[in-house]
Specification:
single chain; alpha+beta; Arc Repressor Mutant, subunit A; 3 domains; nine-stranded mixed beta sheet; 20% strand
């Protein structure tokens, strides 16, 4: 979750994101080479992705399916007729000296997503961010600059073409974002959506999700946009936020000092926490787009579109709305539970089995999450089933076992043991006749603590509750025990 930032009053930022998302296909967009991450350099290549003479590309049908599903999830209009284009540029990472992309007829346009910002007090604000387009394209190779930790100082470069031809969708937002916080949240929401769909793993550290920021500033009230600058090389959501915040300050200072802002591409330097100039920004005319002659146009039938739409899961925004309005959870709880699809489905399964929604949420976000983090596991990999969790929650709510006893038995629950077996003979003691002698014993055995209570330190009640819980193996009803102790200690003072 991103942190709130100071809002400028004299100027406002106009921000849009171009997000490249690698699709989770096993093979490349136009050939059957593997898309496996981490393979030895230049092993996942073939004549098609290398652009050798005499070979023709063939569209991977799975790429089209994933692109359409992503477009639908972003509330886009899916084009009945679409095509590929050649984007010309000459750089060592592009073996063909052109990239197959989509220009004037993308597969999806005119969409939007909802982002939700939660402040430190737990209050949420929702905002709709427009999506201009989504289109398919192939990735380029990877350049490794050696001899220096700075590009400008490198003495040579190595090229790994394994990524060449890897399928991407590029998602272009409208310039509706106004802060680094909003931009970071928008990027996170995109990642949630593609991961829910299963069309991408969204791993930024592996390059599966890459964001470029377009940003300008203007005086508040001015309609015309300022000069746009592009920022690249941000490999985390916090880096997106920090880069934007830095660039806003840089551009405002430039405007106020009369320094011209040029349309350029800048790099975010993580080490120095600043942006630096890379190159003057190209325009679309520099790429000399023309229709790809080796690929047929794309037509998505109404029947196919309906089929793919029917396969879409409920997305994070819809789940957040439901959790907050129907299940009574806080915006924060809803955010945490919907971050991963598997977690949301586990939670919902527990609630459907009768678990109190808040209690189930607390268990999943607390003790279970702690165990998952420690063991580096996904929630789908644990043996504690949603049904068993629901049974535990119901036993606590009915007053048959204490929360402390349940947590004590968590290791057994995580091993898959049934609650009815674990908690056999462990029901709470709710009979005052059983508890009162134990309370009297605890009070009589701790005169120093009694004197503390007499002197006004009423928090020592917790000490006596702990003593009784210890004597009963945490089976004493905490609420009843507290009431009885309170009554007996007050009687001593009076």
């Amino acid at each position: 979750m991103t942190a709130a930032t100071t809002v400028k009053t004299d100027y406002e930022a106009i921000i849009g994101l171009e997000t490249h998302c690698q699709l989770a296909t096993k093979t490349k967009i136009f050939s059957d080479s593997s898309t496996e991450f981490g393979a030895d350099p230049n092993t996942n290549i073939d004549p098609i992705c290398m652009g050798l003479p005499g070979v023709l590309p063939v569209l991977n049908e799975k790429v089209l399916e994933y692109a359409v599903k992503a477009g639908l999830a972003l509330n886009c209009q899916i084009a009945k007729y679409s095509k590929f284009d050649r984007k010309q540029y000459f750089y060592p990472d592009l073996p063909k000296n052109y990239q197959i992309s989509q220009f004037d007829l993308p597969i999806a346009e005119h969409g939007h997503i909802e982002i939700e910002l939660v402040d430190k007090d737990g209050n949420s604000t929702r905002k709709k961010i427009g999506v201009t387009r989504l289109h398919m394209e192939e990735d380029a190779g990877k350049l490794v600059h050696a001899g220096s930790d700075r590009l400008s100082g490198s003495s040579y470069s190595l090229v790994d073409y394994n990524r060449a031809g890897v399928p991407l969708v590029e998602i272009v937002s409208e310039p509706d974002l106004r802060s680094g916080q909003e931009a970071a949240e928008y990027a996170q929401e995109l990642r949630r959506i593609v991961r829910y769909l299963g069309v991408s793993d969204g791993n930024m550290q592996e390059g599966s999700l890459r964001c470029d920021v377009n940003i300008s500033v203007r005086p508040v009230g001015q309609k015309e946009f300022g000069t746009k600058v592009e920022i690249k090389n941000m490999n985390s959501f916090s880096a997106i936020q920090k880069a934007i915040e830095y660039e806003i300050e840089r551009q405002i200072e430039a405007v106020e000092s009369g320094e011209p802002i040029i349309q350029e591409t800048r790099l975010w330097e993580e080490g120095s926490q600043r942006t630096i100039s890379m190159r003057v920004k190209e325009g679309s005319s520099d790429y000399r787009y023309f229709p790809e002659p080796d690929l047929a146009p794309i037509e998505v039938s109404e029947e196919q579109l309906k089929k793919w739409e029917s396969e879409l899961p409920d997305l994070p925004a819809k789940k957040r709305h439901y959790y907050e309005t129907e299940l009574g959870l806080s915006p924060y709880d809803a955010r945490v539970l919907t971050e991963e699809r598997a977690t949301a489905e586990y939670f919902e399964a527990a609630v459907n089995k009768g678990a109190n929604s808040k209690s189930a949420a607390n268990w999943i976000m607390g003790d279970i999450a702690g165990y998952l983090n420690k063991q580096k596991l996904n929630i789908s990999e644990i043996k504690l089933t949603p049904s068993n969790l629901a049974e535990v929650v119901k036993l606590i709510d009915k007053g048959e076992i204490s929360n402390a006893k349940a947590k004590e038995k968590l290791p057994d629950l995580l091993e898959g043991k049934a609650p009815k077996d674990i908690f056999a003979g462990e029901k709470l003691i709710t009979d005052p006749a059983v508890l009162e002698p134990l309370i009297d014993e605890a009070i009589a055995g701790n005169p120093k603590e009694v004197e503390k209570y007499r002197s006004g330190k009423t928090n020592v009640k917790g000490f006596f509750v702990g003593q009784v819980l210890k004597k009963t193996g945490k089976r004493a009803d905490p609420k009843l025990t507290n009431q009885l102790i309170d009554k007996k200690l007050k009687a001593l003072v009076e």
